[in-house]
Amino acid sequence: MSTSSPARQQSEPKYWHLKTVLAQALDTEFSVGQTLPNERELAARFGVARATLRQALDQLELEGRLQRRRGVGTTVAPPRVGVDVSPGRHAGPAAEGGAWEAVDCAGSVPAAAVARDLGLPAGRPVRTVHRVLLAEGQPVATEQLYLSPGLVPAPGAAQERGPGPERARAVLDRLRTVPWDGQDRAVELGSAGAEDARLLDRLPGSPVLIVTTRYTAAGRTAAVAVATYRADTCRLTFGDREALTLTAG
């Protein structure tokens, strides 16, 4: 009598086998940045339905092997960019600096989960700082930083009338004076919404890594940052000597 579990008796999905074959072809036949043949040609070459091919391509994109861009097609992806997201115990939301560029600061309504973290009723707008992370001049992440009401004084009148980046930098400067208690951080896999896709030059529904950081001050959550990273471009590291790569599959 066989002792194999039902799961082990199941055959490997066709798209998964095709994904392995395609990965080998990427290693031997294509170079970084090269555009792949269209779906019809690839499906004919490997003798599969286009639906099966799309599943395999989706998986390779999720694993960072391929990139899909509007008007360009599907290309072989370069190695992922390492992004250090290791939390500093008392570092506040304005401490990262570096390649993060301030874009704007305005009122916006956070998602219900963020509102709960901030102890606010759903639908209440809060001051929100928008930033973009650049790597080699290209956007690889976008962040919305939601601030508890009254956390920092409002910028001066002149700054309020200034351009968006100036308003955002003024608020970030004030955040550096807040005595932060600490933070906690969570990472999950998601898909790009229309706005994130536009900002990151991706297609809607493309895989992304979502990093949510809750900053505490005076014993309560005072700020929540929701950062969306391109999953095909970024590998998130946590200050280890060996980079910890987050992939799916």
Automatic annotation (TrEMBL):
Key words, A-Z: DNA-binding, Transcription, Transcription regulation
Pfam families named in the record: GntR, UTRA
Does the record carry Signal as a key word? no
Question: What are the residue boundaries of the HTH gntR-type domain, all occurrences included?
Answer: 12-79
Q: Name one GO molecular function term.
A: DNA binding
Report residue spans for region: Disordered: 75-95
Q: What is this protein called?
A: GntR family transcriptional regulator
Q: Which organism is it from?
A: Streptomyces marincola
